[in-house]
Amino acid sequence: MTAYGFAHLHSTSTHADIRTYLERIQATLDPFAGRFVIHGPPAEVLEGAWPGAMVLIEFPGLAEARAWYDSPAYQAILRLRTDHVPGDVVLVEGVGPGYDPTVRAPGPHAG
Length: 111
Known about the structure:
Elements: E1 3-9, H1 16-29, E2 35-39, E3 53-59, H2 62-70, H3 72-82, E4 87-93
Antiparallel strand pairs: 1-3, 1-4, 2-3
Helix pairs in contact: 1-3
């Protein structure tokens, strides 16, 4: 099942380390078939507030996403970002075709 690495970056930075991180990240994704789906602004906020930027990276599965994050290649560049851009990062499994959102609804299901 497709999985995603999602980051909500609370601010941006023009620090030279960020440029280096961006220059090197794709090479860390390639062995795990990771690809950028969303990378930063602009975003049209329709409800609430969304300070910062979002990043969404797609992987073939959760195992590949975790292996990428834990890989020596990514760990070697991770501090280039985390030292300068605070944010939240999660790995999440996607849903497949035909997904029924009522499976997450509370209470008994209507027949």
